[in-house]
Amino acid sequence: MESKRQQKFASLLLQDLAAVFQRDLPHLFTGLPPGISTVRVSPDLGVARIYLSALLAGSGEGLLAAVQDNSKAIRQALAKRIRKQVRIIPELVFFLDDSAQYAAKMDAIIGTLHIPAEAPEADDAPAAPQAPPRPKLFADEDE
Known about the structure:
Belongs to the RbfA family. InterPro entries: KH_dom-like_a/b, RbfA, RbfA_dom_sf. Keywords: Cytoplasm, Ribosome biogenesis. Monomer. Binds 30S ribosomal subunits, but not 50S ribosomal subunits or 70S ribosomes. Helices cover 40% and strands 14% of the residues. It contains four helices and three strands, in the order H-E-E-H-H-E-H. It has a domain of 93 residues: GMP Synthetase, Chain A, domain 3 (2-Layer Sandwich). Strands 1-2-3 form a three-stranded mixed beta sheet. Strand 1 and strand 2 form a beta hairpin. By secondary structure, it is of the alpha+beta class.
């Protein structure tokens, strides 16, 4: 479980990395810059694991390779943005977030399942339980 400090720092990194990708270094990516789905920070705030989403950017492996090749420039641009707010600029480790693709795969698998709906027969079906009568709270209350 992450501490409040880690969560705040991860939120700061998420916002500033998104700004770096969109404003400072858009020339590094062909097409759209990657989206950042999650940032996880180590307890000492020295290492940040950034999960990139490649839904709109195209090929995931090509995107991850481009980001990893330019990780030094990305870290320097991030340092310019957050240098007055933090003591140590974290080491950035990038991963490809495939949770959306996994969800689509599971949705397709569940969609192909054929589960027959069995209706209970009239003879074997138990009678529906009836609600107990409501007690009268006042003497002049009608039913």
